[in-house]
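Protocol step 4 of 5: obtain the predicted structure for the target chain.
Materials: sequence only (see below). No template structures provided, no constraints applied. The aim of this step is simply to have a reference model before the mutagenesis design in step 5. Sequence pasted as it appears in the construct record:
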Amino acid sequence: MSETPSLKGAAVGRRIGIGLMYGLWRPRVLGAWKVPATGPVILAVNHAHNIDGPMLMGTAPRPVHFLIKKEAFVGPLGPFLQGIGQIDVDRSGTDRTAVTRALGVLKDGGALGIFPEGTRGEGDFASLRAGLAYFAVRSGAPIVPVAVLGSTERRGRLVKALPPLKSRVDVVFGEPFQAGDASGRRTRAALDEATVRIQQHLTAHLADAKRLTGRERATGRA
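Step 4 output (structure tokens):
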């Protein structure tokens, strides 16, 4: 499938996300007004829990199309994720179909969600892949950093990779910024520079989000 993911489908996914996330956890959303109401935008999200994607889908002020590893598109979940406008990506190489579909979302003025760390880990933006810089520089879309901060408490967890049910999950949106240097360059050097610029913005936003929500004290680090 190479057509642009369905915006109507993503809107349905947003409604499902709202019901699930607010039903199972207690989201607290800060700074959602910073997300541009219209036009292309990239939401760059840290990735520490399995609910980070659905949580953002249910708390973002507009429908989001996520780039999701193809391994998640198994069984009945595959058609469902495609139906709600999500994009499967093969991480073993350059997935040109996924790239085309993601750029199509931005060209049509949609919101693209990306986990720039690639896989779920510490969620600290310590290791970024170059894909985010490519989409931002190629499309010219602003990046909005997003920190999803769940409980680090182990008690009450039904699944290790999920925050305890009914626990508070903070979703903090940051200020939009441009990854490029306004030169229009798309060279490898320009993308490398953009990646460094992005990492600085995302790391600073995560530290600010922890301070803002009081989680800096809980984790003992920014």
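Step 4 remarks: Strands lie at 26-30, 41-45, 64-69, 87-89, 111-114, 143-149, 168-173. The chain has a mean pLDDT of 86.
Proceed to step 5.
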